[in-house]
Each structure stands twice: as C-alpha cells, then as structure tokens.
Amino acid sequence: MPRAPNPREIIDLEAHLEKTENEILELSHNAINLKQNYLELTELKHVLEKTEAFFAAQEEIGMDSLTKSLISDETGQQAATRGRLGFVAGVVQRERVPAFERMLWRISRGNVFLRRAELDKPLEDPNTGNEIYKTVFVAFFQGEQLKSRIKKVCSGFHASLYPCPPSNTERQDMVKGVRTRLEDLNMVLNQTRDHRQRVLVSVAKELASWSIMVRKMKAIYHTLNLFNMDVTKKCLIGECWVPTADLPNVQKALADGSNACGSSIPSFLNCIESDEVPPTFNRTNRFTRGFQNLIDAYGVASYRECNPALYTIITFPFLFAVMFGDLGHGLIMAMFGAWMVIKEVSLSAKKTSNEIWNIFFAGRYIILLMGLFSMYTGLVYNDIFSKSMNIFGSSWYVPYNESTLEHNKALSMNPTESYIDTPYFIGIDPIWQTAENKIIFLNSYKMKLSIIFGVVHMIFGVCMSVVNYNFFKRRYSIFLEFLPQVVFLCLLFLYMVFMMFFKWVAYSTLSEDEAYTQGCAPSVLILFINMMLFSRTAPEAGCKEFMFEGQGTIQRVFVLVALCCIPVMLLGKPLYLLSTKKKHVKPEQSNGNVNQGIELQEQTDIGEVQPKPQPQSSGGHDHDDEPFSEIMIHQGIHTIEYVLSTISHTASYLRLWALSLAHAELSEVLWNMVLTFGLKDHNYVGAVKLYVAFFFWAFFTLAILVMMEGLSAFLHTLRLHWVEFMSKFYAGLGYIFQPFCFKTILEQEDEE
Fold it and tell me: Which family does it belong to (predicted)?
C-alpha cells in the first residue's frame, strides 16, 4: 500500500528537485554556449582554410600584374585608400546562396567579385541539434560604401562574417590558433556532456520515485483545496466520510502528522451529525472482491442494506455448476483458476491493457469455485467428458443368460428382477449411460432439481427482506409484505416441491400396494394445474387421483389462502400508513454550519461512536413519504409484479435443466463424432487418426464446451441472481464509498 509523504519529505523533495532542475538548466545553458562557440570557431576555421585555398589556387594558375596589383597583402583600409580591392569572408546557409548572389550583384551593379565553396560536412545547430549546411564565400569589392552595403546584405541573409587577414602568414597563424582552441573547446564539450550524462543518469534512477511522490503531493494539495478556512484563518476544516472501524487509524494519522510537521495547533477529529445518506463501503479481500463486483454491477447497496455478496459466494458457483456439471470440464476450469490464484502475485505485477485477461484475472476465485463445484455436480451426474464411472459398483445386474443377450439388440430390465434395492453410493448409477431411455430419465431428474433449487433460492431471497425491514425500522412491512409473500410462495410452489419429494419416497416398483407402484405415480405438473384450476383428472384403474388422503381439500385451502394473501399485499401497507397518518419530511441535504459543528464540540471519543440507523426512506423500495394515491399505485405495481414473477421466476429456473441437458448432449456428440473416429482402427493408421481426432476433440472441448458453454452458464447464473434472487429484497440505490487512496490514484493515472 503506498505510503503518504510526511511534511519533511515534501520539503526535502522540493529542495532537491529545485537544486537538480537548476543544475540541469545551468548545464544545458553552458552546453549551448559552448556549442555556439564551437560552431563559430569551426566556421572561422573553414573560412580561413577556404580563403587560403582560393589564394593558393590563384597563384597556381598564375595571376597577371594587374590582378597582383589589385590584390595585395595590405589591410582593407590601406587597400581602399590606394584604390585597390578589399574583401570580406564569411558563411551563409546553402539554400540562400542563389538569392545572396543576386542581391550582391544588384546592389553593386556587377562590381562585386564573389567566390564560394560548399562545406563537405554539415554543422550542428547548437539550439536544436539539427544539421545545417553552409557555404563559405569571399566577396571582393572596391570602396568603403560598397563594403557597408555588402555587410547589410550579409546581415539580412543571416550570413556570419569573420575577420580574415589579407596576409598569408597571418592567415596560417590564425588557422593554427583556431585549431588549438577547437581542440580545447572540444575537450571541454566532452567533459560537459559526460557531466550532464552522469547527472541525468542519477535523475533517471530517482525519476520513478519522484514521479510517484509528485503525484501524491498533487493529490494531497487537490484534497486540501476542498477544505474550508477557519474563522481565525489559522487552520483548515474538512468534512469526510470515514468507516467507523477506521476512526482510530485516522485519529492516529492526524496526531502523527501534527507531530511530524511540528505544528503548534494539533489536528483533531470530531464526529458530527449529518442528514445526508452515507456512502456504502463493503470491506473486501482478494477472495470476496470478485463476488462483490458482481453485486455492484447490478447496483451499489444503499447504506446498511443487506449485502447479498456473502451468500453469492456459495449460490453463484453452485447454480453455475448445476448447468455446467461435468467432472472433466470442471477440472479444466478449476486448474485454470488455481493457476491464476497461485501465480496471482506475479501476474498482478504484470500490467496489461488486455481487457479480456483483466476480466478473467479479476474473477480468478470465482472461476476456481465454479470449477470445483462443477466437479462436484459432475460427480453427482456421473459425467466426465460424456462418460460415466463405475466407482462403487452398479446397483443393477443383468438377469439374462448369454444366449438371450446375443440374440436381442435391446432388453428391458425390470427393477423387481434387476435392482438390488440399494441406490448407488453417490450420484446417478452408471448403468443409465447405456440405457436408451437415458435422456427421458435425466430430463425428469434435472427438471425437478431445477424447480427445487429455484424455489428454495427465491424463498431465501424473500426471507432476506426481513433484515432490511427490521434495520430500517419498517417492521410493519414484515407483517404486511413479507408474511403474505412468503405464505403465497410456500403454499403454491414449496408445496409443489413437497409433492416431488413425496412422489420419490412414496412410490416404488417394490411397493405391495398397487396404488403406490411405479405405474400409478401421478404427474406433479398435472396435480399442480388441477390445484390451480380447481379441476380433477380421473385416475387409471387401480390407482388414486391424489398421493395421500385429504390432498384435494388441503390443495383447495392452500389456493384460497394464497389468493387471500394478494389483497393483504395490495392494501395492507397503504391502509396502515393512511391510518397512522405517518408523514416523512425530508430535511435539507446539508451538514450544517461547519464551524459550529466542529469547533464548538469537544473531541469525540472514538470508542463511543456507533453507526446510526438511517431514516426509514433508506434502503430501497419505500415510498412512505408520498401521497396515498402514489403509495397505492406503487404498491399495486409491486403486488402485480410479485405475483406474476413467482410464476415466471420459477419457470426461469428451468434454464438450469435446459443448459445442463444441452451441455451433456454437446459433450456426448463431440465424443461420438470426433474422438470415436480415431478409435475404430487398431493399427498404425488408427494411431495417426487418433492423434488428429484427439487434437480436434481437445480443441472443440476447450473452445465450445469450456469457454462458450462456460460463458453461457455464467451469464444465465448472473441473471438468476440479479432478477430472480436479488429482486426479492435488494434495491441497490446507494453510491460507492471512494476513500482517499494513493494506490487508486496512481493506478487511475497509469491507466490514463
């Protein structure tokens, strides 16, 4: 966790940064001046060399007496006095030479003799470091007036003029002196460059820590700008939300800060009353953070509202596993999740912008639990890559002899003859893997499990609303909303679950009573439909319409009581509020006078601070402060939604059965149509075919059954929690608590 800098560190850092900045600026300025001097000396060297080369070339080709008399070794002033030619030498940028020549010709009307030579190597601009190409020129003229004109043209074209002695001896001496100065200057430049390199290397080593420190200081100053000034203009006052458990830490931090900076006014902390709804802070760790993110994606809980993330840790991977149940596929997912969990320190240190990987890594514990639960349900389904395992021995045996088995393609096994009346130790008997009616049996089994899990899940969600009603002081809703809802749900759908269990227990092929044999078992769906419609279905001969005596009467009572719960849900709460004439007036959203709330109070004893229950309007579905007509409308919508949703949500849990069946069938099809292709030939060709078939089988298993089917099951599980479960008690109308955290600030800036 990043640490906050103390005042002494801030002062030292500011002084060190200022010193380093001044040193670097001074080095840069000196380097520019040295490069400028080096450039001028280099240009002077080239001017002298080119001028000497020009005179040498004239001597080689030979000059007539007139030229020798015009160009002598006299100075410019003496040459002008005696009417001889003078000259100026310098350098000009190469791209300006044509225009420079034309301008000299125009101002002198052709009376200037210009010689030029291009420099072979480019020079370096001392300010930008770019390469510049220049040309050395020597202009011969007669008269001081023409000389001043030439200098003005050179100034306009930014040409650099350098003194060039007319005497050959003086030029050679000057060239030697310039070369010596260039060598000395080059040595100084190298030393300056090395010194600056050492300074920059030392800065580079500290740059990362300095950058973090500067960003921390920036965040601190930004937060301090949100504070209010005290009436005495001597201290700052700030209001903030602090978790109650962290108040001692905040108090200690304030005391340590005051001692560290040597302030004469100690920092103190007071807890003040506020009418604003506090933000929601759920303390999480690496394991629970992923599940809390699933809940926050639906909506942040209101302050002190019941948080479903704790129960989601178990229910989410379990419902996922019901749809994804396969021991092999679950093992692959669990291994992937375990790898991310074991390597989480090294993987989290590798920052990446891959959004898909970041999502997987953030949900590594969810993936691990989903894989482990899928292994468990796969063991219950006795399904591993579409095959079954006979670990504990089948409870069925074949009563037929060998000749009967050889002459019959399919035979029926009567439980009275082939079943030992002891179920398989855990899960489904492996004999069903070879049965032709396997799908019919598994359909009935998984469909009933889906309804059972769904009804239990919804009842648990309705019961969780009691926690919110009790905490937010709306206990009348326990009697006027919760009880009618849970009675309505239990008398209809929990009763249907009871009939499923009763049918499994009461009816058996080995039963002595004909009415309770396998053939007389009534359909639970037909019984439930007849119960709702108050109708009857004639049973077959020797069978009974109902499962037990008095079931018809009990069902009619259940339906009537459930129907009576609807008007209680619709009218109970509005009439209660009307009779009590309970009115809520929302106070102004303000924390009051800052100075009066803080300065005039003594410092709060941290141990006495207790979380204050929020007003009754907090925590979600509540409209108590609205007019009676509005309350009736909201309650009517809520009642209609609940009554209809009990049916639709119960049917929605059938997706557990549908996706489980689809996953099992896809796995079986992939095995029979791909991997079996390589198992037919028992020779060298078969080995090659098996190698290729296994590659495609493994690829499609990972791509389709693990990834695509896993994503589909994940989304359906998420919907079951958001819609079917959390809608029973969770509002999610709060806002998240965002503490001042250096780690969060640094991570956000790095992402940007």
Answer: Belongs to the V-ATPase 116 kDa subunit family.
Q: What is the pTM of this model?
A: 0.75
- Name which residue leads in pLDDT, 610 or 499: 499
Closest by Cα among 484, 429, 434, 437 to 462: 484
Question: How confident is the model over 63-113, as pLDDT tens digits?
Answer: 554 444 445 444 444 544 445 678 888 888 888 888 988 888 888 887 888
pLDDT tens column, 651-704:
999 999 999 999 999 999 999 999 888 888 777 888 888 899 999 999 999 999
Instruction: State how far the alpha carbon of 609 is from the alpha carbons of 243, 248, 601, 612, 614, in Å.
Output: 11, 11, 15, 9, 15
Instruction: Please tell me the CATH code under which domain 7-60+86-200 is placed.
Output: 3.30.70.2750
**Mean pLDDT lowest among 361-365, 512-516, 712-716:** 512-516
- Digit-coded pLDDT (tens) for 8-42: 667 777 777 788 888 888 888 888 888 888 888 88
Of the candidates 234, 245, 318, 276, which has an alpha carbon nearest to the alpha carbon of residue 599? 234
Maximum distance among all alpha carbons in the chain?
151
Two tokens, residue 93:
């940028």
Token code pair at residue 357 = 């990987």
**CA–CA gap between residue 101 and residue 117 (Å, rounded):** 13
Residues 495 and 501: their CA atoms lie apart, in Å, by 10
Delimiting residues of CATH 3.30.70.2750 domain(s) in the chain: 7-60+86-200
User: Which H, E and C letters describe 260-317, residue by residue?
Assistant: HHCCCCCCCCCCCCCCCCCCECCCCCCCCHHHHHHHHHHCCCCCCCCCCHHHHHHHHH
Rounded CA-CA distance 44/40 in Å is 6
598 has pLDDT over 60: no
Specify whether the CB–CB gap between 330 and 374 falls below 8 A.
yes
pLDDT value of residue 3: 57
What are the tokens at 28? 């840069």
Cα 182 to chain centroid distance, Å, stands at 59
The candidate with the shortest Cα–Cα distance to 92, out of 139, 52, 146, 140, is 139
| Closest of 64, 62, 125, 53 to residue 89, by C-alpha | 53
Q: What is the pLDDT of residue 461?
A: 95
Dihedrals phi, psi of 397, to nearest 5 degrees: -140, 160
Tell me how far apart the alpha carbons of residues 40 and 34 are, in angstroms, rounded to a whole number: 10
Distance of alpha carbon 137 from alpha carbon 114, whole angstroms: 7
Q: Residue 90: phi, psi to the nearest 5?
A: -175, -170
Nearest to 281 by CA among 654, 740, 640, 698: 740
Neighbouring C-alpha atoms within 13 Å toward the C-beta of 334 = 19
280 three-class SS: strand
The CA distance from 376 to 374, in Å, is 5
Alpha helices in 363-437 (DSSP H): 364-381, 402-407, 415-418
